[in-house]
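Re: the 185-residue chain
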Amino acid sequence: MSTYAIEIADKAMALLQAKPFEPAFKTFKRTPMRQVSPGDLPLLGVYILRETRSPDGDENAGEPRFFHRLHLGIAGAVSAADDGSQLAALETVMAGIDDRLLTDPTFIRMFEGIEQMDRRSQYAIMGETPLAEIQIEMVVTFRTYWPPVVPDDYRTFHVETRYPKKDTDPGAVQQVVEQYDIEQN
């Protein structure tokens, strides 16, 4: 995955942690929730599910350029052992996540666009803890390119003549010795 994809995920997590939701999350994770204990709940996770790169323009023509599709996962989990009030609160908070991320200009400026968003609910038992989880998958797009590293940037042009032959005494015939500094953009 690209470092820029990590920056996008980090920004999403920072925005979601900046101002507490009501009810507040107790735990924040940057990795998928493989094992959850009751003490971690309610929990919010932001993680990279997948990133694909396709050529931006003709492949193998010029510097490497890519069009990225980043699948960003956001998951909120609560205990489902109660009468359903925690799940209802989680529904409200997860709806607020869209508002928090999609109205923040510093987050939106990080990518070209949002290709799609998918929301799904899952119910499971982790150990002995019944768990309700709402997952949001956001697919954002951005581009990267890598200009070539050119070690010789051709800043100076040095000219010396030896006229009429290279073994001619430079004092016998006037020679040209000149150095040009090439202006760079």
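The beta strands are 27-29, 43-55, 65-79, 113-126, 129-145, 156-160, 177-181.
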